[in-house]
Every structure is written in C-alpha cells, then in structure tokens.
Amino acid sequence: MGSFYVENFGCRATQADGAAIEHQLTERGLSRAGAAAEAEVVVLNTCTVTSSADQDARAAIRRIHRANPAARIIVTGCYAQRAPEEISSLDGVSLVVGNSHKHRLAEIAAGSGFVSLGSLVNAAPPTSAGNRAPVVVEDIFAHTELLAAPVFDSDNEKTRPNLKVQDGCNNRCSFCVIPFVRGRSRSLPLGEVLRNVDQLVANGYQELVLSGINLGRWGRDLSRGLSPDLPPAADSQASVLRPRFVDLLQAILERTSVPLLRISSVEPMDWSNELIALAAASPRIAKHAHVPLQSGSDRILRLMHRRYRPWHYEDRIQRIHAAMPQAAIGADVMVSFPGESEDDFEQTRAFIERLPFTYLHVFTYSSRPGTASAQMPTQVPVHQARERNRILRELAARKKRSFQEQFVGKTLRALTLTHISQGRTEALTGNYQKLWLEGSLPANRMLTARIHSIEGDALVGAAE
To answer: Which CATH number applies to 411-463: 3.90.1150.10, 2.40.50.140, 2.40.30.20, 2.40.50.100?
Structure first.
C-alpha cells in the first residue's frame, strides 16, 4: 500500500495532531518510513505562529521535493489553514488540507479524487510550475471536531507522550493568529481523556504531559450533566454547570494510575487557588508551572488585549512559588511588540527580575497577517528587538543557574530519556531540569538521583 512520513512543526498540540494523522494513515494500510526521503507520501503538519514558522515549512517543502521528487507532499496544519493558496502554488505540493479538515486527512486523500481508491501512492503528480495543488479548507469556526491521539514513540517524546485534551482559543490577543487557524476552544470529553490515559499507562509510560492550545479552558464547552464521571463540583455555581481544568486533573488522579502527570502551559487567570493547591498536594503532579506572561508592562498588556494585569500575574506566580518552592516556573515573553518603549521593556525586565522564574521562552514579536497588531504603528527596529531579546535570555540563564544551584548535594526524582552520550543517560526531573546521570540506563525509568554538580545548563548526578 505504500509508505508515509509525518513531519511536525511547532507546539505540543501540533505533535499530538501529527500522532493522530499517523494513526489515520496506518489504519489505511500504509507503513511508516524512517525519513521523508524514503516515503511515498510526506505529510507536513505546519505552524504559523511566526513568519519564521512559515519560512520553515516552505524550506521543508523545497528540501523534500529536491531529495524525493516522486513524493506526494500533503501540507496541513495552521499555515495550511491561514494561507492555503500560497502553499498550493509551491512546487512539489500535491494537496493542501486545512485544520478545518485535518481530522479527515487520510479519508480526503484516499477518496476525493486526489488519490485513486484506497491508495495514497497513486496520487496525481506533485505540483509543477504554473499549476496549483487541490485545496480543502473551510471556515475553522464552523468546525467542532478535536483531533487528538496520544503521541506514541515519536522522535521527541519516546518516554514522555503528550495528550492533547483541548484545542482552539476564545481569546483575541492582538498579536495572535492562532484563534483564526485553530477555531473556538473545545475540549476532549472526560471519558475519552480517561481512556487515553489508561492506554498510555498500559503501554508502560511513566509520565504523561497534558497539552492544549488554551489548556486551562478545558471543560468550559462541556456540560457537567453529560459527564457523570466527573468528581463532585466545587462550590461555585459556574462549576456546577461546566467542568473546569482542575476537575479534569482530579478525575485523572482518582480514576487512573498514571505515575506522573505534567501540566503544560496554562494562562495566569486559570491558575486558581484550587488548582495551585491540588498541584502542590499531589505527588503525582509534576512540580512545574508554565504561565505565559508576554510583557511586564501594563500598557503593553492592554495593547496586546491580554486578560490580566501585572499585579494579577505576580500574585499568581507568588502563590505558586509559596505552595511549591522547588517548582520550575516558566513563562513566554515577547519583546518588541509594536510601540514597546525603552521604559516598557525596562518594566518587563524588572518584573521578571523580581519574580521566581526558573526559565523563560523569549520571543521577538512577529507581525501576522490579519491580526490587530499588524496595523499598529511604531514597529520596533530590528537591532533594538535583538538587544532586548539578548538581555532577557541572559537574565533567564542567570535565574536558571541560581535555581539549579540549590539542588547540588540533594536528591530529585527523575525520568530517564532515550539519549545516551559519553557514558551518561539524559533524564528529566519532576521540576523540569535536564539531568545527566552516570552510566547507561534504560529509558522510561523513574528513579531518585543525587545531584553532585552542574555542567552547562544541566544538572549532573547518579541514580541512588
């Protein structure tokens, strides 16, 4: 029946989408190739959060078409949803499927005229100059499907699969194109979440990462009355009618035997006191909080249309730190949003300096077509943007080193990964620290390690 290869770009949610696409293709009888150059069908599952992400996708199309001219390249994902006609004109592309129809990608490819019955291999030739590939894209807001599958044995997550339980976003941040390519927030029903978690546990995984585009909004589109497996509602009237993310965590802890549950990015307004208390109290929840910030300037946050103020964000971070003093606390920070002055940036730098962050993901603003910020005046010069990015990265490195130093001579729980180098095994601690362990150890093993030093950005230790 032929072979396929799926290449994912971007976030954990995209990786989870890619796993579901792989499942679709294997169900239709195709086998997974070891590389794009060896596959008859290549699916590029794209990102479009920055202009660089678009460039990466186009470069991948050129690279794969050059190395494997006969391959049928199917482009899907966020870039395909945002600019399908742009992609369809590129040499080598055979089909463009937007996020609106990603959940039916294999079906569309096999039964819509793009492919002869049942075979992805007998597709029409790749696009050549002057021709356009077929496009299957519709209004993402008209679709309610959620493509989700546990990520099993992908290149990056062989020991820490992620499960996407939420997709889409109802926020309208002025810089963000994601709601327009992912659609409204929608949740994977509790029963499906629990079945997927049980499957992961049955396959022997020790750590599971819950992911989503706006993960903390899980459940807001579901009815509690239709979810009898949920734990009793908290005392707020809203939670009686609509389940919340903390309800999902409680249900997973009570109804499955997953050893360790890690929460990916959750917005500050969704770090409720109840969620913080549960994360702190349960030994089965990783002590790790990723809380997007974007800016420490109140003026810039308002221009961004973010739904919190700096003092609210600081309160949430301090509460998390007080409840979990050894927890990793990270944030996404954007520099050089249109109109960001030197004073705005200094407010952000000082804000980050005084808070107990252990790492940062620093991004430079990238204008996205169709967003409100793309029309804003006073774009920041490139040289200033690069300097601000550098300053925050250096600040993040100092904070990370200071955080790591407290663990030298102490023990931490960690999970062994697959990378072995120079007689050492890479591991990840519960509080999100890279750790090199002495000796070659089997992957997917939860253990206690004694830390004896720091090398570069990693802890070094030995299993006890």
So the answer is: 2.40.50.140
Q: What is the pLDDT of residues 408-428, one digit of tens each?
A: 999 999 999 988 888 999 999
Amino acid letter, residue 346: E
pTM: 0.87
Fold classified for 3-142:
Rossmann fold (3.40.50)
Q: Please, where in the chain does CATH 2.40.50.140 lie? A: 411-463
Distance CA 440, CA 434 (A): 16
Cα distance between residue 254 and residue 278, in whole Å: 12
Q: How does DSSP classify residue 285?
A: B
What is the Cα–Cα distance from 40 to 32, expressed in whole angstroms?
10
Residue linked to tokens 């109140």: 298
Pairing of strands 93-98, 135-136: parallel
Our CA angle for 72, 76, 78, nearest 5°, is 155
Q: Is the dihedral of CA 454, 334, 175, 214 positive or negative?
A: positive
